[in-house]
Amino acid sequence: STISAGGIGSISATGEVSSGSVEAFEMYRTLGSMNPQVRNRHTSPANQSFFDVAEALIEADGTDEQTALRNASQAFATFDGDPRKAVQPSFNKIISASEDVAPRAKNQIEVQAQLSNIAETYMWSRGLSHAKTIKMAKKRWKETHRIVNGQAMYVGSTNTPDNLEELSNYAAGIYARDNGERLDVKDTDLVLKYSPGTNRWYVAHKVTGRMMEDSPFLSASDLNELDKHRSQDAAKGIVFGKNVSPFSDLSENDIATIGFGLAQ
């Protein structure tokens, strides 16, 4: 598969990163955000470790994908394997940090995993102390994560809308209106989720985190258009997630225009 072809063995001895390696990494990240089980079926354990380290470098340092892949390859050579096995952040400090940075988050286990990934990256890549590592991990987490409808999620360094939660409610409402009965989901089951491999957003289930069937990929411009329609509905007193009024009078053409593609 494309993912396997672009794994750890694809980086040259000189550190050259091919376009195929970047493409494989992007696919790995995209599938991971939508359905980790499917991703793992198409990725060997060795490549999973390699790509996970590269992704952690991006989340911890904000490096681009080529640099992350190159540095991950060098780390595997330096540590003679997965560099994460050489460090172990304090679990108690990670728990305390998660409660500090995201007290409202309902997915605390995920927050702890996110913080741990960043912390251990700083430990093996910079040789920092536990205390310094946790402090820096908390700062970086706040820069790259948001809490939407009680769900802490990675948003990277994108220009995330300030009213992301309102947009998430609105997108969930459109999706539930058109697909809820068929798929037995309510708007309150859904949330907008960021796909780092594509730099776009999609409708996901809050519990499983998986992308919903027929969900669109929304670009930043799509979100802007979506927000215009949300504001128009809000002016009519229709604020999804706040009342039980009919959701919207968006026409099928309106929905297609904003890239949602959900009109039947």
Describe this structure in words.
- The protein has helices at 2-5, 19-34, 36-41, 45-61, 65-78, 91-101, 108-126, 130-144, 164-183, 220-235, 252-257, and strands at residues 145-148, 151-154, 190-195, 200-205.
- The chain has 264 residues and is mainly α.
- The strands form two sheets. The chain has a two-stranded antiparallel sheet with strand order 1-2. Strands 3-4 form a two-stranded antiparallel ribbon.
- Helix 4 packs across helix 5.
- The longest helix has 20 residues, at 164-183.
- The model is unreliable at 241-264 (pLDDT under 50).
Concise overview:
This protein has helices spanning 2-5, 19-34, 36-41, 45-61, 65-78, 91-101, 108-126, 130-144, 164-183, 220-235, 252-257, and strands at 145-148, 151-154, 190-195, 200-205. The chain is mainly alpha-helical.
Helices and strands, with pairings:
Blueprint: H1 2-5, H2 19-34, H3 36-41, H4 45-61, H5 65-78, H6 91-101, H7 108-126, H8 130-144, E1 145-148, E2 151-154, H9 164-183, E3 190-195, E4 200-205, H10 220-235, H11 252-257
Antiparallel strand pairs: 1-2, 3-4
Helix pairs in contact: 4-5, 4-7, 6-7, 6-8, 7-8, 9-10
